[in-house]
Amino acid sequence: MDKIKNICEKNKYTMCIFIGMLIFTTVICTNFIKTHFALDTYCVYLYDSQELISHFLLSNRIVSALARWIFDVLRIPLLVNMKILSIIGILFLATAWFILYKFIIRISNKQNNIFYNILIIGISFIIIYNFCSVECLAFWESGIICFGILCTVIAACLFNSNIKYNKLITFIFVLLASICYQGAITLFIPLALVFLAYKNKEINKENIKRIVVESIKVGIIYIIVMVINLVATKIFSTVFNYEFRKIGALSIAEILHTIARLGTDMVIKTFGILPKFIYALIISIISVIILLYIFRKKKSKFYILEYIILIASCILIPILPMLATPIESQYMESRMAISFGASIGIALLFFILVLEVYKFKCYKICSIIIICGMIMLNSMYYIIASSEMIATNYLDRNIAQEINNEINKYETKTGIHIENIGLTFDKNITVNYDGQRWLGVINTRSMATEWAAIETIELYSGKYYNQVEVPTKYQEEFAQKDWNYFDKEQLIFEENNLYICMY
């Protein structure tokens, strides 16, 4: 007990910081602890365990498959294990934030500089908590995805540590992160590179050589892990006789087109989630400040090259897996581009850690303004996004219950039980509810999603239906309509079939 007491006393300051981080994380993420449904969660709730385990294995998310199996063995209900995973996810995110902060403070040897500590706490927050990573808490496997982010942060720190076999241990952690969620490891390369830039911040021939060699090692670790993922995906596809992720070679023209298309969707449009150009604008402002600093302080131009590579890696890494995917199968969600969401934080970390601008008043003020602004924006986004998700779930439930009421009335009146449901669309599908800004899968209407609508109806009815095609005549009729609210006219009952037009 005395030993524990002494340890606690010596690390009181550190423990207070971690507890503060955990409390702050809990505050901005508290809605994710409540029962919530992402589009995939409706499927998770209703599909049998074997089907879900197969699904996770087909996408090489082995940890998610294992977690589902463990919960089944322990007979823990899904709604309960959802809350467990959400709480665990919050704990893992806070831990990732803390580890990132502690590593930066340790390598910079600024433990006693309170102002510097506060800056790094803020920057570490911006890296971990961004508009792309918020989706990680939306899904059933939230705790596992967040564990992947934690493993990625640890890997980047280990790569730049002096421990024995650090490269091998780094590889293991990156691989572990990838079988949790592949999108998590996008953060590895930018983080590892910015730490590498700091370790060799004195620009000379020897350090430049070391940076090049170590950067290649970073890339090799990432490539090996991705190749293992592709091979594993192919093996599982063969075992289950189903190709979940299509793999195919692209021409040079197709590669360039993919990079341009997905890069624009990410950088300029921010996946349609944030206002256009907002991320590009903030990064541009930071970039201009960095360039001014380098030229005014007559720093080595090699810093410019390092910075360009850093930002380019944040953008290009999420796109790389798409280059092994046929164009018709390419898609990106914000959670697949966590490195891009962290790009502002990465840029600020380079600004503060590598260039040490906190020593100069003018640049210090600029840093404080940007960091405080991003902390506020990212925190608000987490709160707003989770609130909108809960609201969307509520409205989806209301429509599903109205449909179930109509089904019950029809069955009572006719004595015929509805066995089949067909789905079609009106002229302009409404992706999110009136008064809501679209925030990606966070608040996409399940009742406007072909592969989640029936599952939502089943969830709130306790009944199960076969999905069938809607007859052409009804499809053509509904295609002329354009609703922006639910109406009983959107339902057509025919024998044991129900045809629904999703507005």
Textual characterization of the structure:
With 503 residues, this protein is mainly alpha-helical. It has two domains: 9-359, no CATH class; 399-502, no CATH class. Helix content is 64%, strand content 4%. It contains 19 helices and four strands. It has helices spanning 2-10, 12-29, 39-46, 49-58, 62-73, 78-108, 114-128, 142-159, 166-180, 188-199, 205-240, 252-267, 278-296, 302-316, 338-341, 343-354, 361-414, 453-461, 472-479, and strands at 420-425, 466-468, 491-494, 497-502. Strands 2-1-4-3 form a four-stranded mixed sheet, sandwiched between helices. A hairpin with a 2-residue loop joins strand 3 (491-494) and strand 4. Helix 3 packs across helix 18 (453-461). It is elongated, with a radius of gyration of 25 Å.
Beta-strand content bin: under 5%
Estimate percent helicity. Answer: 55-70%
Stretches where pLDDT is under 50 for at least 5 consecutive residues are none
Q: Please give the radius of gyration in angstroms.
A: 25 Å
Chain-wise SSE layout:
Blueprint: H1 2-10, H2 12-29, H3 39-46, H4 49-58, H5 62-73, H6 78-108, H7 114-128, H8 142-159, H9 166-180, H10 188-199, H11 205-240, H12 252-267, H13 278-296, H14 302-316, H15 338-341, H16 343-354, H17 361-414, E1 420-425, H18 453-461, E2 466-468, H19 472-479, E3 491-494, E4 497-502
Parallel strand pairs: 1-2, 1-4
Antiparallel strand pairs: 3-4
